[in-house]
Predict the 3D structure of the following.
Amino acid sequence: LIHFYKRNYQLVMGDTETGETAGAAANIPEIELIIKASTIDGRRKGACLFCQEYFMDLYLLAELKTIALKITTVDMLKPPPDFRSNFDSTPPPILIDAGVAILENEKIERHIMKAIPGGHNLFVQDKEVAGII
């Protein structure tokens, strides 16, 4: 994976008493989500609807222990030089899975739905809610 941004958050969920995380980590895919940083300090998660949506979806999968999630924030007012060289002027969200960067929102959603374990359940509309709407 690419490690060149300002702030990284590593989300590893598991049972530390039984050591479940260490043994199962070999089979769990590591997903990195690059999101916009806050304009307040350039480090916290920023106000981007797509970034937040994919963060919530992937966080849920990380809680279910189907993926290992790494969140990286990028200050788009002062992006690091290697960010620009790798992604040109593409704004976050950017999903990196197995070293492959996915840059477009529709492709990110499709990738989560089809390629990430458990992702297909995230975009299924609830019948009861659909009836109310």
Remarks:
- The radius of gyration is 16 Å.
- Helices lie at 20-24, 49-63, 81-87, 105-115, 127-132.
- The chain has a mean pLDDT of 82.
